[in-house]
């Protein structure tokens, strides 16, 4: 009895999987060889614990601190967090910065910081909220809800990107 070899399409699929595995391994090796250290996976919302504090600088803002949970090492992309104060589109947080920042690797006590200015308008308009709905950008289906230190008036809110230094997370607005 003769054995049957796999079909040409099976060979093609196997070659594609092997190429993807080799590319991933080569990328990790290249990062390590370039002195960038080991490659970490991107953080998801469940990897992190969050804290919110009120700050008075720049007219007042909320400083969001993210830390990896015990045993987790991951990185936050240098973009603003996905956040909103309510369920309507006008309470969604927009970007305060016009460029992407460096990624922040989190592990142990290392933290990442983002500043949220809940009100960027110079009028008496806005809605009061006492909670923030938050997730890592790209992981919106797993958001968490944080109680604010105090109720804030929200009108055209913005947030800085994630930063390794809290002084870089002050959301200055014009």
TrEMBL record:
<protein>
    <submittedName>
        <fullName>DUF4232 domain-containing protein</fullName>
    </submittedName>
</protein>
<dbReference type="InterPro" id="IPR025326">
    <property type="entry name" value="DUF4232"/>
</dbReference>
<dbReference type="Pfam" id="PF14016">
    <property type="entry name" value="DUF4232"/>
</dbReference>
<keyword id="KW-0732">Signal</keyword>
<feature type="signal peptide">
    <location>
        <begin position="1"/>
        <end position="32"/>
    </location>
</feature>
<feature type="domain" description="DUF4232">
    <location>
        <begin position="43"/>
        <end position="162"/>
    </location>
</feature>
């Amino acid at each position: 009895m003769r054995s049957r070899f796999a079909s040409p399409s099976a060979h093609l699929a196997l070659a594609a999987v092997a190429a993807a595995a080799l590319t991933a391994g080569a990328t990790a090796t290249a990062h390590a060889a370039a002195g960038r250290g080991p490659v970490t996976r991107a953080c998801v919302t469940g990897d992190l614990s969050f804290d919110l504090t009120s700050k008075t600088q720049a007219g007042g803002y909320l400083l969001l601190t993210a830390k990896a949970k015990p045993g987790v090492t991951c990185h936050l992309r240098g973009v603003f967090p996905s956040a909103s104060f309510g369920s309507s589109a006008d309470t969604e947080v927009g970007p305060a910065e016009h460029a992407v920042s460096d990624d922040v690797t989190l592990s142990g006590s290392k933290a990442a910081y983002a500043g949220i200015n809940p009100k960027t308008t110079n009028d008496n308009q806005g809605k009061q909220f006492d909670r923030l709905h938050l997730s890592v950008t790209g992981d919106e289906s797993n958001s968490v809800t944080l109680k604010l230190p105090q109720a804030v008036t929200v009108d055209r809110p913005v947030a800085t990107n994630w930063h390794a230094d809290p002084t870089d997370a002050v959301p200055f607005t014009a």
